[in-house]
Amino acid sequence: MELTLVGIGTGNPGHLTLQAVEAIRAADILLIPDKGEDKQELADLRRSIAAGCVGKDDARLVTFPMPGRDPGVPDYKRRVQLWHDAIAQAWLDALAPFAGVRKVALLVWGDPALFDSTLRIAERIAKARPLDLKVVPGLTSLQVLAASHAIPLNRLAQPFLVTTGRHLRTHGWPAGIDTLVVMLDGESSFSTLDPAGISIWWGAYVGMEGEILDHGPLSEAGPRITRARAEARARRGWIMDIYLLRREGSGASAP
Question: At residue 66, does pLDDT exceed 70?
Answer without folding.
Answer: yes
